[in-house]
């Protein structure tokens, strides 16, 4: 009977801990993500989708801006998972590669910029604890990890370009290399203005 009650206590404690974590997220992470979403939409509305399209088109022309600079800036400013939303402004052909570079960068920058991927901070903290026990500086490791990550993420994005080209060719699918966003109002909006 002692094992059953122990298991029941552990099981309930698991959900109580989950509830406490959820409440802590509601007062920390969730508002930040929502405000970042509002900020991004405000910037897009302020600049206009045409300018954002031009910026994305300019970024998509160059492999360095596409898989090195754009993922770094979007991860730093928007964090995970909001950083993926900038792919909206890239041509369809480059979206898989952007995602590959972006997904990796959210992990490799966590040591220096923990706000980028707070959900996986425990991984970095575990590594950092081992480094500290060895008497080494965790910031040195974090900087090296980020720089190696930037290079590898760039290579990963670029290699995905070749993979995308191969898959498109072998399947006969043609993805656009031009940004195509429609700015059409919803049907209900058209009726309301009529």
TrEMBL record:
Superkingdom of this protein's organism: Bacteria
GO biological process terms held by the UniProt record: phosphoenolpyruvate-dependent sugar phosphotransferase system
Protein name: Sorbitol pts, eiic
PROSITE patterns xrefs: PTS_EIIC_TYPE_5 (PS51107)
GO cellular component, one term: membrane
Entry's transmembrane regions: 22-47, 67-87, 142-168
Source organism of the structure: Agrilactobacillus composti DSM 18527 = JCM 14202
InterPro entries associated with the record: PTS_IID_sorb
Keywords: Membrane, Transmembrane, Transmembrane helix
